[in-house]
Amino acid sequence: MELFVLFSILISLSALFSYINVRFFKLPSGISLMLMGTIVALAVIELGQISSRFSAVVVKELVLIDFSEFILGILLSFLLFAGSLHMYLPDLKKSAKTITSFAVIGTILSTFIVGYGFHYITLLFEIDIPLIFCLLLGALIAPTDPIAVMGILTKAKLSKTVETNIVGESLFNDGIGVVIFATLVQIASVGIENFGAVQIGLLFLQEAVGGIVTGGLIGFIGYQLMKSIDHFQTEILISLAMVMGGYSLCHFLHVSGPLAMVVAGIMTGNRGKAHAMSDITRDYLSKFWEVTDEILNAILFLLIGLEIVVVTFEVSFVIIGLLTAIIIILVRFGVLYATATAFGFINQLGPGTLKIMAWGGLRGGISIALALSLPSTPYKEVIVSVTFVIVLFSIIGQGLTIGPLIKKLAKHTK
């Protein structure tokens, strides 16, 4: 009952803050909810100076939710499936080369460059974190989260090429980033000396390829079931089973659930909608997942803001986080431009598109969830605190400025 009350409060706050935003501020919903959640969290911290009992009660309620398990075990499957439902396959095929290059090569490069950068920054503050844990930070912060700016992208009326590249890259680099993170966690747990290059490659392939194949199987079974009936309530229930049952299956098989959900969502949103659904089912299913996506994102961004109450922030951690955030932005610009140049599609995209993709690559709840999922070590507190600072900087700093940047650069995009 206590957990039900907590979620009731979260839903009520989400509704209240969403109303205030729509009525007065008109900011992107994710950004506004996180901002208001942060303000509430800071108010709780200040009130805690007056009444420690009040602060303790709030912390006690928040820790009822395992933030990492809640996102990685529940929210991520729904959000990735819902997001990939809207990916139009012909557009995806057209941008397959750029999306694959950015999602795979870009994520790997970003992981190592940011990881090494974080390592040297911590040494400046006389905090000695083993390199493998620095690379873990690089991996968990690599996935981008464009959900907070999708409303802006739509309003800006950018070309399909830009939207497809931003959303497609994000959906797949979420999966790739989680696979890299899981691989590095395995290495950290047994020691790099016990892990050869072949073992690392096989583990990566098992997670990545296994996730894609499992996602294709989930999507195919769901397609066949939907095609054999015409009953929108049951077909929506089947889509829910694909997400919940499919994600649980991936966990059991030790393959990438995020990649599986992306593949299953793309299959359902294209072949499923085109050949297995009536017009009524297509309309109801789209609206159901759109509302589900909106509600879960509202809870997610509100929780990111509120979780500040339970995280330790030392001055040195904040400074390290801000310096690392700057490195992440520079690395993202560099990696996108280098990848586009190396594979010969920089002229195809244009400089405006790359700048929007670079600045619009926000970090979000997945990064925080991965940081919180780290095994208990002396380095976890630093990594969690730094991750929170990076995410807050990204969503607030980049999220509030991406709109003006898009308007300025839209004429240079294709």
From TrEMBL:
Q: Which GO terms describe its molecular function?
A: potassium:proton antiporter activity; sodium:proton antiporter activity
For this UniProt entry, what is the primary localization, expressed as one broad class? membrane
- State where the protein is found: Cell membrane
Question: What does the UniProt keyword field contain?
Answer: Antiport, Cell membrane, Ion transport, Membrane, Sodium, Sodium transport, Transmembrane, Transmembrane helix, Transport
Q: Which family does it belong to?
A: Belongs to the monovalent cation:proton antiporter 1 (CPA1) transporter (TC 2.A.36) family.
Question: Per its record, how is this protein called by name?
Answer: Sodium:proton antiporter
Which residues does the UniProt record annotate as the domain Cation/H+ exchanger transmembrane?
A: 13-408
Q: Return the GO cellular component terms, semicolon-separated.
A: plasma membrane
Family annotation (Gene3D superfamilies): 6.10.140.1330
Q: Which InterPro entries match?
A: Cation/H_exchanger_CPA1, Cation/H_exchanger_TM
Cite the source lineage: Bacteria, Pseudomonadati, Bacteroidota, Cytophagia, Cytophagales
Q: How does the protein's chain sit in the membrane according to the entry?
A: Multi-pass membrane protein
Q: Which GO terms describe its biological process?
A: regulation of intracellular pH; sodium ion import across plasma membrane
Q: Key word Transmembrane helix present in the record?
A: yes
Which parts pass through the membrane? Answer: 6-24, 31-50, 70-89, 101-123, 129-150, 171-192, 198-220, 255-274, 295-313, 319-344, 356-376, 382-406
Origin, by domain of life?
Bacteria
